[in-house]
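Tip: read the tokens left to right.
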């Protein structure tokens, strides 16, 4: 997933500018994925979404931070950017 997005972005811009686009897209993508997983868990457990909204946003934020930012940085480090 990281490699495919990186190749798509670098097809349209050089590496120095691609980093500025790559990391925010990865962070937002993982944040949205984390919130969606939380919504699915709430649907299966019968928890009210409004009552669990703070937990959903927190879980999405941590997913964006850990998997998005740190994962994206490790990926960029590994490919030598």
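Filled-in amino acids:
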């Amino acid at each position: 997933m990281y490699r495919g997005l990186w190749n798509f972005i670098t097809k349209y811009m050089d590496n120095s500018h691609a980093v500025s686009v790559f990391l925010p897209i990865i962070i937002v993508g993982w944040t949205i994925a984390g919130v969606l997983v939380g919504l699915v868990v709430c649907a299966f457990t019968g928890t009210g979404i409004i009552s669990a909204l703070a937990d959903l946003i927190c879980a999405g934020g941590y997913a964006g931070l850990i998997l998005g930012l740190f994962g994206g940085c490790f990926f960029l480090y590994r490919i030598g950017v």
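The CA atoms of residues 19 and 76 lie 8 Å apart. Residues 15-45 form the longest helix (31 residues).
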